[in-house]
Amino acid sequence: MALLTALRRSGARESQLGRTSALTAAGVYFLVPILCALAFTVGLGDPRQKPGLDAYAAIFTTDGLAQSLGLTLLLAGATVVLVFGLLLPALLAVRLAAPRAKALVAVVCMLPLVVPAVALGAGITTVLRWATDWLYDTPGFPLLAALQQPGFPVILVLAYTLMALPLAYTTLESGLNAIEVKVLVEAARSCRASWFRTLFLVVLPNLREALLNTAFLTIALVLGEYAVSALLGFQPFAVWTVAISGSHAQLSVAVSMVGLIGTWLILLAVAKLGRSKASKETS
Predict the structure, then answer these.
(1) How far is CA 280 from CA 157, 187, 273, 283, in A?
(2) Is-contact 155 202, C-beta < 8 A?
(3) Which of the four pLDDT bands, split at 50, 70 and 90, describes residue 281?
(4) Fewest CB atoms less than 10 Å from the CB: which of 126, 151, 227, 266?
(5) DSSP assignment of 81-109, as one string?
(6) Would the pTM of this model clear 0.85, i.e. be above it?
(7) How confident is the model at residue 165 (pLDDT cuts 50, 70, 90)?
(8) CB–CB of 166/213 below 8 Å?
(9) How far is CA 128 from the centre of its chain?
């Protein structure tokens, strides 16, 4: 018995040591670049510069930031709406009416993972160039021009939606696996609830955490996406940050740090919102 207890304690110590080592390595991997970037933005280690927060103060007076950030947030909101509009009906239809189509939907949603962003951007550019030649002087040309309006490029929303599909599908599918959708729907319908009330008052509240996580991941993807936007010639937040890095390197890194901190704050807010709603329902 004493030998068994000693073996268990030894195994627990090894497991604790393994977790500590893994967390330490992960912490070093993520924190060292962030700390180096912070030191660069405040001028630490540069004898030619006095340490200070000038780069962060310049963020609010730099031309182009408000426009690029506003455009990015608009694109992120539209992408979230389109992702939900496409995926939720498809996944619910698979659960309720066509379970055999689950594999097909999974393949279609995960397919963008094998297409690099550069290849996607180059492909969209080629298609737009081809469509411009073929649709010129036709009723379809104004629609093609509307897709590429610099004020709100719908073509970027379509591209972002395609890129967000794998993450959104994985998150929503995990949320749907955690509940009995068919039982909930049949119970609501047996109480004479309409399909609208069944969806918005029964199914979606049970998917709140999955919906919040999907929205956060989509917003984070849009905030950091560069390749497709740059290839298509638009200037959302990520492209603007790279564009100013040539002449304002410290400012560019400072903006990136603020964006990183803002993304983490959104993540914490989403997690706190999900926990507070869940605790209210269980209390």
Answers:
(1) 35, 23, 11, 5
(2) no
(3) low
(4) 151
(5) HHHHHHHHHHHHHHHHT-GGGHHHHHHHH
(6) no
(7) very high
(8) no
(9) 26
